[in-house]
Amino acid sequence: MTRAVVARGSELRVEDVVLPEPGPTEVRVRIRAAGVCHSDLSMVNGTLAPAYPLVLGHEAAGEVVSDGPLAGEHVVLNWSPPCRACWFCAHGEPWLCATTSGPSVPRGHTADGEPLHVTLGVGGLAEQVVVPAHAVIPVPRDVPFPVAALLGCAALTGVGAVRRTAGVAAGETVVVIGLGGVGLAVVVAARAAGASRVIAVDVSDAKRPLALAAGATDYLVSDDGLSRAVRGLTEGRGADHAFECVGRAVTMRAAWRATRRGGAVTVVGMGGRDDLLSLSALDIFHSARTLRASVYGSSDPDRDVPPLAAEIRDGTLDLSPLITDLIGLDDAPEAFARMMRGEGARSVVVL
Ligand code: APR
Ligand code: ZN
C-alpha cells in the first residue's frame, strides 16, 4: 500500500493505492521528492483529456528499493523513456520517440480494487512508484532530492530549450514569457549561456523577485505594450530569442512580436488543441523569424541529466530559485490551487 495524489476529474485526493509488484524489467522507487508541474494541472483542468482515476505527478526523484542492478541508487524519473529503436531514436531525437506514452497510462495500480492510470507513465506524486528500469536515471547521492526531481521535468525542459533547441549564444538578448518552474529554468540557463539581457515577463508582478533571483536583467508585466517595451530594451530591434513558457496562443503571439527580424521563438509551454495561433503570411516571410517547439528540452534524459546533476553539485548551475515551497504529500492539492492562482514557482513534495 502506498499513498498517492489521485485525480478523479478535477477533484484531487490523497488516497491509499496498491502498486503492482515490479516485473523483471521494472523497478520500485521510493519517492523522496516530487514537483507539482503545470502539466499535472493540465491533467485536471481540461487542457488534456486523460483517463481517470489518475495518479498525478511526473517530476520526481527517489531511491530504488527493489532488488537488481539499480538497487539503492538515487534516481531521477524520466517520463519519456525512449525505445532506442524507432526512426526518431535512431535519428538522434529520442524526445520524439514514437513509443512515447499518452498523458495517462495503466500500470497495474488499484485503489479499492478499482484500476488507476498514472500520469505520463510515472504517477510520481506518491510514496512509491513502479516503472520500467529504463525510465530511471542514476544521479550522484549528494544532489538533493528536490532539485533532482526538477531534473526530470522543469529543469531539463527549460535548460534544454535554451541550450539545445534554441542554442542561445553569449551576448544575445532573450525574452522569457511565463515564470513558473519552466520559465525560471530558462532564465537561469539563459544567464548561464552569457545572454546580455534576459527580459522576464509574466502576467503578475509577484514573479519579479523570483525572476531577478534567477538572473533576469529586466522584468515586465505582460500587456499590449510588450513588444514596444522589449524593443526599448533591445536598441529598437526586438530580442534575438523569445521563450514561451505558458502554453497559450496569446503568449506565443506575444513571443513572436517581441523578437527581432530573423529572431527565434521557442515554444516550451504545452497548450490546448483548440487554442489557435494566427500569423499573417506576409509577416511570416518578412519577419524571417523561426518558430520551434521544444519537447522535453530537445534532450535525451539518459545523456543530459547526469551532466546537469554535476553542474548543480559543482555550483555552476543554481536551480534553487525555482523551488518556492517544500510541502508534504497531503498539501499537494493546495499546491495545485496555488499554481492556478499563479503564486510561487515550484512546490516540491518531500517524502
Ligand atoms: N502572460 C504571461 N505570463 C502568463 C500568462 C500570460 N498571458 N498566463 C500565465 N502566465 C504565467 C503564470 O503567471 C505563471 O507564472 O505563466 C506561468 C506558468 O507557470 P506554471 O503554471 O508554474 O507552469 P510551469 O510548470 O512552469 O509550466 C509552463 O510548460 O511544460 C509546460 O505544461 C507546461 O504549459 C506549461 C508550461
Ligand atoms: Zn512537467
Automatic annotation (TrEMBL):
Keyword Membrane part of the UniProt annotation: no
Listed Pfam families: ADH_N, ADH_zinc_N
Mitochondrion keyword on record: no
InterPro entries according to UniProt: ADH-like_C, ADH-like_N, ER, GroES-like_sf, NAD(P)-bd_dom_sf
Superkingdom of origin organism: Bacteria
Keywords: Metal-binding, Oxidoreductase, Zinc
Cofactors that this protein relies on: Zn(2+)
Domain (Enoyl reductase (ER)): residue spans on this chain: 9-351
Family: Belongs to the zinc-containing alcohol dehydrogenase family.
Name of the protein in its database record: Zn-dependent alcohol dehydrogenase
Organism of this sequence: Luedemannella helvata
Lineage start: Bacteria, Bacillati, Actinomycetota, Actinomycetes, Micromonosporales
